[in-house]
Write a structure and sequence with these properties.
This protein is α/β, with parallel strands linked by helices and 273 residues long. 39% of the residues lie in helices and 16% in strands. It has ten helices and eight strands. Strands 3-2-1-4-6-5-7-8 form an eight-stranded mixed β-sheet, sandwiched between helices. α5 packs parallel to α8 and α5 crosses α9. The longest helix is centred in the C-terminal third of the chain and has 19 residues. The chain is globular and about 55 Å long. The two termini are 17 Å apart.
Length: 273
């Protein structure tokens, strides 16, 4: 469990990037406004992503060919561990996440030591395409069953991982499956809970002139892979009914001080039994 107080100097931002030339300069520069260290993992881009990042004061790791988001995150986490950071905040390279939310994730992590902190897209959800909302809700239900506690926005790419989670070895799953599995592995192996900090949902819409590249997440293909993987995890644990009853006793923990979405401090699964 993380014991050091987190701050912008001991938390690294890890950004997996695949063909992000449209907004990667803005994403990295804004991340540097809130954290001193940024690690970008270029996952075999064939546009100008790597060249743009190379001109910025960050650490750039490059894959010679596309290996998937899971591999990019693994390499970013390994680099952060090698450099001795106490935690990592992940962000996508397409501009969907606001770097200004990074301090809120760090503050929540300090209030809930040892927990993963999730930037949950709960604000302005009306801008999220309906099919993505359905996919997110379905994913939350299945991943919660495997983790043993309820959660919201399990597919968010903006998360804070404490050092204990970064140190987990042999977390299975590739691509977007890895982001689901790391929640499951952290819950099972470390008793690690999840705390959600409400952030704004940001997609291309008629009400905004912001431009976002098309998502790399393929709803049917990737949701099927996540579902099949998580279902196997749930079945392997056994006692399906008992575990479902268990997760219903553990409501989502939402950290939003001063607002209606606020919830009491999170306990780890080990503490709640």
């Amino acid at each position: 469990m993380t014991t050091a107080r987190l701050h912008r100097g001991n938390v690294a931002v890890v950004i997996p990037a695949l063909n992000e030339a449209l907004r990667i300069d803005e994403v990295v520069s804004s991340a540097l406004d809130h954290c001193d260290h940024v690690i970008v993992v270029d996952d075999g881009s064939d546009d100008a992503t790597a060249e743009i990042v190379a001109a910025l004061p960050v650490t750039l790791l490059r894959h010679a060919q596309r290996m998937g988001k899971g591999a990019a995150l693994r390499d970013g986490f390994a680099e952060a561990r090698r450099r001795g950071f106490e935690a990592v905040v992940t962000m996508d390279g397409d501009g969907q996440h606001r770097a200004s939310d990074i301090p809120r994730l760090i503050e929540a992590a300090n209030r809930h030591p040892g927990c993963i902190v999730n930037g949950a897209r709960l604000r302005k959800r009306g801008t999220q395409p309906w099919y993505r909302r359905i996919g997110n809700d379905f994913g939350d239900w299945g991943i919660a069953w495997a983790c043993g506690y309820r959660l919201v926005d399990s597919q968010s790419g903006q998360r804070l991982y404490p050092a204990s989670v970064l140190a987990l070895e042999h977390v299975p799953g590739e691509g977007f499956v890895y982001e689901a599995q790391i929640l499951i592995s952290a819950a099972r192996e470390l008793g690690c809970g999840l705390v959600s900090v409400p952030v704004e949902t940001r997609y291309r819409s008629a009400d905004s002139d912001e431009q976002f590249r098309q998502s790399h997440f393929r709803l049917v293909h990737d949701l099927y892979r996540i579902t099949a993987h998580v279902t196997a995890q749930v079945l392997a644990q056994g006692d399906i009914v008992g575990r479902y009853r268990q997760l219903r006793r553990r409501p989502p923990v939402i950290d939003d001080p001063g607002n209606d979405l606020a919830a009491p401090p999170a306990a780890t699964m080990q503490e709640t039994g």
